[in-house]
């Protein structure tokens, strides 16, 4: 199995981790009864639940691109150093992004996000050209 496909499989576990963190923060903020309800008239979330929501939303914004590029790399047989490094940069920066969102070190979250973007660009260049 190629590096890109291997990381694609592990990205599903990473996506699950983002959902787990978000849903746990939500339940800790609102409680199990509210989480199990229709959530009508919901108040604004506390900062932890809000960060979990934003982190998950941000992950999902780039996840589709990663999936498309990883699958295109695999189907085209164009795996190379650029696609492999891009895949690893995207994956490991997305691993680091979740705690970076909660730790709140100025510019750390943005720096990690930028690295993940570089990974996607490398992956695109490697498969497209």
Can you walk me through this structure?
With 129 residues, this protein is mainly α. The chain has one domain: Four Helix Bundle (Hemerythrin (Met), subunit A) (Up-down Bundle). Helices cover 82% and strands 0% of the residues. It contains five helices and no strands. Helix 3 runs parallel beside helix 5. It is elongated and about 50 Å long. It starts with a helix and ends with a helix. The model has no long low-confidence stretch (mean pLDDT 95).
Describe the protein's topology.
Layout: H1 3-30, H2 32-35, H3 47-76, H4 81-103, H5 108-128
Helix pairs in contact: 1-3, 1-4, 3-4, 3-5, 4-5
Q: What top-tier CATH class fits best?
A: Mainly Alpha
CATH architecture: Up-down Bundle
Roughly how many Å apart are the termini? Answer: 22 Å
- Written as H for each helix and E for each strand, in order along the chain, the element string is HHHHH
- Number of helices in the DSSP assignment: 5
- Residue stretches low in confidence (pLDDT < 50, at least 5 long) are none
Give the overall pLDDT as a whole number.
Answer: 95
Which features characterize this protein?
129 residues, mainly alpha, 82% helix, 0% strand, Four Helix Bundle (Hemerythrin (Met), subunit A)
Quick rundown:
The chain has 5 helices and no strands.
């Amino acid at each position: 199995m190629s590096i890109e496909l291997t990381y694609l499989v592990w990205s599903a576990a990473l996506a699950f981790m983002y959902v787990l963190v978000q849903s746990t923060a939500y339940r800790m903020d609102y409680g199990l009864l509210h989480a199990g309800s229709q959530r009508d008239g919901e108040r604004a979330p506390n900062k932890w639940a809000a960060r979990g929501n934003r982190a998950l939303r941000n992950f999902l914004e780039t996840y589709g691109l990663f999936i498309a590029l990883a699958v295109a790399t695999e189907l085209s047989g164009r795996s190379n150093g650029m696609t492999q490094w891009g895949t690893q940069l995207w994956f490991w920066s997305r691993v680091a992004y979740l705690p970076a969102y909660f730790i709140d070190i100025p510019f750390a979250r943005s720096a990690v996000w930028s690295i993940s973007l570089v990974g996607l660009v490398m992956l695109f260049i490697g498969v497209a050209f």
